[in-house]
Amino acid sequence: MTGPKAFATAILLSLLTATVPAKAQTPPVEGIQIGLSTDNVSITAGFSGADLTIFGSLENPDPLVARQGRYDVIVVLEGPPRPVVVRRKDRVLGVWVNLESETFENVPMSYSVATTRPLQDITEPNSYRQLSLGASNLYMQPADDGDSPATIEEFTAALRSRKTATGLYSENVGGVQFLSQNLFRATVRLAPNVPVGTHKARAFLFKSGVFIKESSAQLEIRKSGFEQSIFRVAHNYSFLYGVFAISLAMLTGWLGRVIFRKD
Amino acid sequence: MGIYLPIAEISVNVFVLLAMGAAVGFLSGMFGVGGGFLITPLLIFYNIPPAIAVATGANQVIASSFSGVLSHMKRGTLDFKLGGVLLAGGIVGSTGGIFVFAFLRRLGQLDLFISLLYVVLLGTVGGLMLVESVNALRATRSGAAPVLKKSGQHNWIHRLPLKMRFRASKLFVSVIPVLGLGAGIGFLSSIMGVGGGFIMVPALIYLLKVPTNVVIGTSLFQIIFTSAYTTLVHATTNQTVDVVLAFLLMAGGVAGAQYGAKAGQRLRGEQLRALLALLVLAVAIRLAIDLFVTPPNLYSLSSAGLN
After folding, report:
1. Are residues A187 and A239 in the same domain?
2. Which residue from A minimizes the CA distance to B225?
3. pTM of the model
4. Least confidently predicted of A16-25, A246-255, B259-268, B289-298
5. Where are the domains of chain B?
6. How many structural domains compose chain A?
7. What is the rounded distance in angstroms from the CA atom of residue A197 to the CA atom of residue A147?
8. Per-residue b/e over A183-204, b at no fewer than 16 CB within 10 Å?
9. Nearest residue of A to residue B243 by CA position?
10. Engineered SS bond to A182: which of A15, B237, B245, B284, CB 3.0-4.6 Å?
């Protein structure tokens, strides 16, 4: 087992562009940038989760606000969206059976958040809702609008709690640290079962609880190596794969007899 | 040592799987069964998704059956014609099973159905075997000669039409029950990931009156092809066969089977059957408990994109 690896991603030194000509008296508007050194990450067979480090910088920060620590940054790594079925077990004649179900469209497969401070200390619940920011504020679109709001709410809550329990939805409070006035580093968790596909990294800047700006970047997570080749063959050449599986079984059976024969 | 299973998409311990394969192989060698009915539940207990456990179990069964058939071929205790007719039925049953499998998976009822089938079948077979072997043990202890059923005694099966002669089995019987038995086993093979030997063997002996010495070889022969067909169809329609997982189980299994066969020779028949019955019942009870105990999570997620 390899331990958690840190995928360090380099600094996009956009902070150097902070030397903007001071053309006006009004304070320039703050901006935020994040950068990834690579646009794809390959995970191998022994992958047991990892921390992904994303660097970013503030543009035109107000030194006074920065010194008082009133800038907050939230970084989100959002997995590819997929339809998901949530099922609930109920007792039928003593046996637990999947009865009710609810299908949701475009649910992010994973959602890792890193913040400078606890979410409730950064801004109002309302602004999170407007930004659709945070696992509990993600809007889950039910495939069938006809279901009662109570049912939809129940299954949405179950979906979030299952995703959190499996580590796919995570929150890393204190995972964003300012290294200097401009520069910050965000550490988001990649669960061992992180989905492959295009992930979207987004950074939100808040100043004294007010949302200022957002910036995003894309990241491709791929599986690599022997196991991934097998997966690809199993899906793209499934007939040949089946024939191979059968031949392998027969060969193993024959070899086992030759090697371990006891009669 | 961990290894990532490409299809099951989880990390597992290599040694646990090798040991699991070896233990089941040992038992299957000892009792002359394929071991699929033990492997699939064990994989489910080890958190392998049931759909993958079933398809991979079918793949693993090929290895142990092939190994067994080789030695039966050498001894000439194999009826190819009977096996062929069973197989024809098996292909039909297996095809039907695959459709039911995909349908239940879409409904979200596959796991429940697999567990229920296991509980019912293993419970019945295990219970019957236990009663029979305990009676036999008692009879031998009290010194009474075991009551043998009269040979030549015919039941309703022997009155069916479309009779066919099976020379190696010294049998003249209708093809209907043979095809039906093959189809039933094929169906179970595709839904439960078992070879079906634990049903096939008693059915051949008690229903069709096939001589005991050709039963195991013939049953294994048809199981190879039914399981191979099941594996192929699962691989193409559901992509649920995990070769890495199957290989680890097979490697442990073929080694264990040879030692198990040797150990089995030292035990008496009814003792062996009583032990196997207890084992089968234990698996059935363990699966039954899971059905009734309140699950830790009432909610489950699955991808909606399946089929």
Report:
1. no
2. A246
3. 0.73
4. A16-25
5. 10-141+155-292
6. 2
7. 31
8. ebbbbbbbbbebbbeebebbbb
9. A245
10. A15
